[in-house]
Amino acid sequence: MSNRRLHPEQPSHFVFSPQNLAWAQDIITHYPAGKQAAAVIPLLWRAQEQEGWCTEPAIRAVADMLGMAYIRVYEIATFYTMFQLAPVGTLAHVQVCGTTPCLLRGADTLIEICKARIAGQAHELSADGKFSWEEVECLGSCANAPMVQIFKDTYEDLTPELLEKLLEAFAKGTQPKPGSQIGRTASCPKSGPTTLKELAKS
Ligand code: FES
């Protein structure tokens, strides 16, 4: 796991948009009195969606809203790779799983595509600022390795060619269908179900 630190350049402040503020205030009410801190991840995620990345002022604003110490929210934002601590590509930030099952299935070749098509180094923005990439630990789709996560969606069963197609689709401003990129349903066998078929008919 890489070191995850706040970006040295930060905006001066953060405020939720009126719509996001109303949403956040409603989310906080979903938790019992005294347990509002449980809303920290959804609020941080909404702040990131609004700003494009998870800024230090946003971390402090969320802490203030939930009555949490800044360090507690900082710990959460720096632990989970779902939170971006520096600006990322506006069209796609490609998180390539590099843990063993994905690596055995070719994650290194996906990283080579990212280096060639996006930027030579992880967390570096592409020349047009629209793409960035990084390697992360297991994202929970090991049965469909190798895979990447782009913002909130996962793209699975990838090959270098399929990843290139995905990047081209994002470059055109389209939203490719998440999940298996070879047509599997979840992690079902490629040729369809192989067990319990009699039960499915009854
Ligand atoms: S090892 Fe890649 S998703 Fe689990």
Please, could you describe this protein's structure?
The structure is a single chain. The model has no long low-confidence stretch (mean pLDDT 95). 39% of the residues lie in helices and 10% in strands. It has a five-stranded mixed beta sheet with strand order 2-1-3-4-5, covered by helices on one side. The chain is globular and about 50 Å long. The chain contains eight helices and five strands; from the N terminus they run ααααβααβββαβα. With 202 residues, it is α/β, with parallel strands linked by helices.
The biggest sheet amounts to: 5 strands, mixed
Which CATH class of the largest domain applies here? Alpha Beta
Structural class: alpha/beta
CATH homologous superfamily classification of the largest domain? Glutaredoxin
Low-confidence spans = none
Under the CATH scheme, the architecture of the largest domain is 3-Layer(aba) Sandwich
